[in-house]
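Subject: mismatched residue count in predicted assembly?

I count 1414 residues in my input, but I want to confirm that the predicted structure covers every chain. Input:
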Amino acid sequence: MCAAGKYSSRGPALIPRMKTKHRIYYITLFTVVLLGLIATGMFQFWPHSIESTAEWTLEKGSVHDAPLIRLPVSSPIPERGDLSCRMHTCFDVYRCGYNPKNRIKVYIYPLQRFVDELGVPISSTGLSREYNELLSSISDSDFYTDDVTRACLFIPSIDVLNQNSLRIRETAQALAVLPRWDKGMNHLLFNMLPGGPPDYNTALDVPRDRALLAGGGFSTWTYRQGYDVSIPVYSPLSADVVLSERQPGPRHYFILSSQTAIHREYRAELERLKEENGEALLLLDKCSNLSQGAAIARKRCYKGQVYEYPEVLQESSFCVVLRGARLGQAALSDVLQAGCVPVILADSYILPFSEVLDWKRASVVIPEEKLSEMYTILKSIPHRQVEEMQRQARWFWEAYFSSMKAIGLTTLQIINDRIYPYAARTYEQWNNPPVVKWSSVNSPLFLPLIPPRAPGFTAVVLTYDRVESLFRVITEISKVPSLAKLLVVWNNQNKSPPEESLWPKVGIPLKVVRTKENKLSNRFFPYDEIETEAVLAIDDDIIMLTSDELQFGYEYFNYLYTYKMPGDIKNWVDAHMNCEDIAMNFLVANITGKAPIKVTPRKKFKCPECTAIDGLSLDQTHMVERSECINKFATVFGTMPLKVVEHRADPVLYKDDFPEKLKSFPNIGSL
Amino acid sequence: MERCSRGHMQAKKRYLILVSAGACLVLLFYLGGLQLPAARSRHGRSRIEQPWPHYSDPLQVFLPWDQTDTEEYNLHISPRQKRDVNRSVYKSKRCRMDSCFDFSPCQKNGFKVYVYPQQKGEKISESYQNILSIIEGSRFYTSDPGQACLFVLSVDTLDRDQLSPQYVHNLKTKVQSLPLWNDGRNHLIFNLYSGTWPDYTEDLGFDIGQAMLAKASISTENFRPSFDVSIPLFSKEHPRTGGERGYLKYNTIPPFRKYMLVFKGKRYLTGIGSDARNALYHVHNGEDVVLLTTCKHGKDWQKHKDARCDKDNAEYDKFDYKEMLHNSTFCLVPRGRRLGSFRFLEALQAACVPVMLSNGWELPFSEIIDWNTAAVIGDERLLLQIPTTVHSIHQDKILSLRQQTQFLWEAYFSSVEKIVLTTLEIIQDRVLEHGSRSSLMWNSHPGGLFALPQYSGYLGDFPFYYATLGIKLHPKFTAVIHAVSPLVSQSQPILKLLVAVAKSQYCAQIIVLWNCDKPLPAKHRWPATSVPVIVIEGENKVMSSRFLPYENILTDAVLSLDEDTVLSTTEVDFAFTVWQSFPERIVGYPARSHFWDSNKERWGYTSKWTNDYSMVLTGAAMFHRYYHYLYTHYLPTSLKNMVDQLANCEDILMNFLVSAVTKLPPIKVTQKKQYKETMMGQSSRASRWADPDHFAQRQTCMNKFASWFGTMPLIHSQMRLDPVLFKDQVSILRKKYRDIERL
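Triage response: the counts match. Full output below for your records.
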């Protein structure tokens, strides 16, 4: 017991006083332990990165390491896609089940190399760069699961992006041998270039049972609305070319056509338009005099003059996207990237992501037959609309076209929205570019309602301890015919509210709520007692209020104040015992985009006898603090939501030369 | 003590060192031991995070750069041929606008609808009669089949249930014998019921050829996208025009009602559609989820009666349908024998958010309405999850769903007229593709019927979307002065008015509409102003021409003025600043009111000074230029002709229109009540205001207008807007609009 204290004070001299034998023994032991610890530490922390890079290269792997699967000739072939498939008939929703996060789980099959009996691969390209990118980004997203039993959606690793490189029959056989294929239920295939010569089907020709198809180039006859997803044809230029965003506005050319493979009938039609309208049109084709090579994809020519593609697209207001052999065109992506408004001429084409994107705000769709009238049609579009479309086009590209990742995740989100429709992204979320999201206001009370008089309003009186003044306020406002309920918020924890018998007699329900803390924010707490929509908030030192003068707040905003107000503002208000009203104004303005309405000429509402001692608003520092508040709140909201208006509301006959007794609110202004 | 402690200490030291060494060893093992599982788990984790190996091989691109080029040149079919092939291949069940609709008559004459003349002796149900008369009264109607873009049959196709008394026999021959039938091309067929017990097919019992269907309870399988229109099932009693408003009078926070989810209806014991309703009792808890079914329906229900029937029937009778409907947050709308039911519209009107349980139903007007904003689309297969789902919906979302039910009800469903017009507008949007409404216009206030895309494709040109899109208003206004008397003296009110208005800092230009029979006065007769004055000579000098959408009006705001209006610059400035806060409403000076005259059982008009008002006179009012367009193109010729013949009531009509669109009253600013020299008794010149008939006419107008709108759109207001320091006892120098007080 006693030793413990001494021992600790003598601690440092411990080793020298030991016997040599013991000392060596202990030093050796310690060294060993120390070395062991260091080695462990090294092993634990330092080699970690070495090891993980080794692991990385190993994981990175090579497509050639993927297992080889030989398909017998007799391997079963799935049925052709069923055109009547819908989510409720061909999709097993039980696999997705209830999910608190409302998010589907997606499984990706590991890569396999399929060959036929003779060893010929089913696809000439195998896994393409784009499909690899797509699968990687899905596997990195929170849609992904590696647990095949928990998956709601399955994505084969068989690349069918481009039908040209596929052997149809063998690809179908490969799909059918996937372990969870089960008639293609809940399987999703990505295809951007469907069909092949000579008639170019608008959907993938590979038989695929009930599998969902995310296809680029659907026509209205092959697209199963609400089941398939229409996706864009990815433009490889998206990754290589950086086009900075241009401010919307007029461009050097009015219409530009940059596609190289346009049917000669249409090219002739365009030439005719060019003749009629001259310089406004720029009609480009591929450059015949340049040597073949990848660089030619980045050049366009008009009569020997060479233009950089896709940069030239930025020089035009409208860009033509004509159908080719297929309906979906990679050029659409280039055009959007350049912020040029696409003029889409592809009859019966289902536009990319049309289930959620409002293309009317970003493009002009013209029937192919009307190609010759294109110029007149486009000329009739107001300038400001063109600007909005330019901005919208660029936004669509950035959000939904710019990478295989964007395309893949948008597709999954659309399917997700169908499975959990009550948690679906809204039209605004899909369609409004960030700049609109910042500047717009969507009031949560958007329905124009004129509340009937019957329910009246609830008056909320915030008080600390000025009982006399409080009683006067209560007596006064209880005379108001439309007052339905009185709620007194007793903000003093040290003192109990007066006994029931002492309160003035009023003809309406009166409730006293005691708060746990003296906070000004208590005024805006959405008390359960408030049953009316309109709330009148007053201070207890307002006795000059005559019963006709009413200032309305909304119960809803009380709720917002408590639950939606940025956190630091509420704390600030509670700490400084000031500005709760300014905060409320900020919030309402921010959420409705509207200014408050001042009612009647009242400007001062404090009683003359309430002196600076306890009248909160009269405090010397009060005004200074209030200016501070405004600055503080403006920084928190990021903008200044308050609006200045120059009007106030008066009763219709206010100050009119008219018998007072015929007026509805004769008392206003009598003070 | 000392020795003892020393020996004690030696032992203690050794002991301690051993313990610490041991501890170190344990730690070492622990760390080392951790190493392995850690490595393993990291290995495992990295497989979870990055399961798809980022293949680093030089992979090929999916689209070789020259592929499209070479392909297109292989293409021999000309696009024209391809279109022809599509047209011949995709018929009947695969009809689309591209293959089964002839656009050419529509492009030539606009979107005109022809209704076949009714044959004598042909019985037509009341509902179908309503549909036909609404089309005939609409602005799309043409009596000339040569002009028509769309044809509507006069034989009743609404009820195709063979067992129904309304069923029309021999429809096939009747339709085939129509001279303009042309295999149904450009025809629209309305249908509410099809098929009958036991399989309720969606076949109409005759060959509809290439005709479009506007059909209730249509399934996604039979629905031809962008060709057919899914309409709601409505009852015989559904009002023809006008229609009741939604039941939501005010919002409650939190938005929960007595019940969370309710249903009361028949339970089919056998046959199609019985599954969903038979399973409902699993979810019923008798508290906040009340799902009641009865087996009592049909003559022989006792035959199929099951064990639960008696208990269910007893429970069923305890609750009142109406009470439940109005006091529930969500209403279950399961399929019946057919996919749609009346319950859908009932729930919508009652602001009870519908929870759809009808797999494969193409919801009404699904082409344009985003139902996720007003309903919860459930899945019959996941019935048991429905309570959890509705409970998980956040109260903000409930509030918004509920308001949207009311908006949609009033915009598209409250009357047969709205249902029919919405159907026609949807088809018109397809026909005139580059002048069609965006989804935003259909799904936000005031809805597609009041937002005409032919006016402008730019949303900022409408008064409704400034806030949602964060667009700024044009900072100035255009004044339109309606001149009817010749210019004789330099002291005429019109000249004073011109000067006063031109002085306003917000005035962009003044348009004088010369509707006087005398020729235009010479240019120099007009006073010199700082803003451009444009004189337009009225073509037919009628009253309605003052609301024509003149191309010269480039600002959002229009200040509409009579020639003898007396107005000061301050008043104009103030009205404009107020209007900027309320761009969708009329802001004006003198106000009038309407009332229901219960003795005469008609609407009355009053210009007395009352405590409330519902109209402001457009002889001096500020409103959005879109209302010019709407007045001219939305209102029927009959009403406009009436206004022109009487040379009166144009302001009442404008107020009706704007209130019908906004569902809000106009706004009166300042004390001004008289605004004419004639009214102030300073001039003895006869004016239309002095005419005793004038007042009686306005009374008549009101009633005529109210009957066309089907309801009284005007709303009373008690509020007048004054400048903030108006008549306050502060120095006049501090007031911005000081002149207003002097008037």
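Chain A touches chain B through 160 residues (CB under 8 Å). Marking this ticket as 'not a bug'.
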